[in-house]
Write a structure and sequence with these properties.
This protein is α+β, with helices and mostly antiparallel strands. Helices cover 41% and strands 32% of the residues. It has helices at residues 2-6, 25-31, 33-36, 64-82, 94-105, 119-127, 144-155, 198-219; strands at residues 12-21, 43-49, 52-61, 86-89, 109-114, 134-139, 159-169, 175-183, 186-193. The protein has a 5-stranded mixed β-sheet with strand order 6-5-7-8-9, with helices on both faces. The protein has a 4-stranded antiparallel β-sheet with strand order 2-3-1-4. Strand 7 and strand 8 form a beta hairpin. Helix 5 packs parallel to helix 8.
């Protein structure tokens, strides 16, 4: 009782996290200029790791229901503002989302990667706990086409996912990396800026490949 009297107003704190990929931290902040500012209610913090942007919503009020109302309103604004950049919340990961989407379709995947330290295969292999989706991976290839052909012959996957950390030079002379996937005889690709720091490149390129496939699967009919 004496402690309660020393605290004039009791309340609760509720947190929620939202994960995004496909834009830098500064770009996300520009899309949410009012929400990130100090003093906004609820508070929205932003952090970045391995290319994944995490928004942490913190609501403080007198009861849980009011906190949840604040968080729901903030989440709607975030999702409306960021659109396809949002891929999940709490413990969601790009690799788990891709595995789950493929499992629902009853399809399988293999990977071909270079300059990633086999990170793409490691991420998918760890996410596929049922061992029903991820077939195998080839790393360190010299010929992209022969590597993709080899993995098809070896594992007969529905999708072959490519992550090439390169870097390669485009027409402007800027170093680039390349990700893509083949499916039903068609190849879809994404050219991305290369990162000189190899420790960052591995996660960046691997997750770019996962995100490219994630967006295709989310919009496929």
């Amino acid at each position: 009782r004496r402690i309660e009297k020393l605290v004039p107003q009791r309340g609760v704190i509720v947190h929620r996290t939202i994960h995004c990929f496909g834009a830098g931290e500064s770009d996300v902040e520009m899309r949410l200029p009012d929400m990130i500012r100090r003093g906004h209610k609820p508070e929205v913090g932003i952090t970045a790791s391995g290319g994944v942007i995490t928004l942490r919503i913190t609501a403080r009020d007198c009861d849980v229901a009011k906190c949840q109302e604040q968080i729901a309103a903030a989440e709607r604004v975030i999702r409306d503002s960021l659109g396809h950049l949002v891929f999940g919340d709490s413990g969601d990961t790009l690799e788990q989302l891709v595995i789950d989407l493929l499992a629902k379709r009853g399809e399988t995947i293999a990977v071909v990667e270079r300059g990633t330290g086999s990170m793409l295969a490691a991420l998918l292999g760890e996410a596929d706990t049922a061992r029903s989706v991820f077939r195998c991976g080839i790393t360190g290839f010299t010929s992209e086409e022969s590597a993709m052909a080899a993995v098809r012959e070896l594992a007969h996957p529905d999708f072959v996912l490519l992550a090439d950390g390169g870097p390669m030079d485009d027409s402007t002379g800027s170093p680039k990396s390349r990700v893509g996937f083949s499916y039903l005889g068609e190849f879809h690709e994404r050219i991305i800026p290369a990162i000189t720091d190899s420790t960052i490149t591995r996660a960046w390129v691997a997750r770019q490949a996962l995100d490219l496939l994630r967006q295709y699967l989310m919009h496929a009919h």
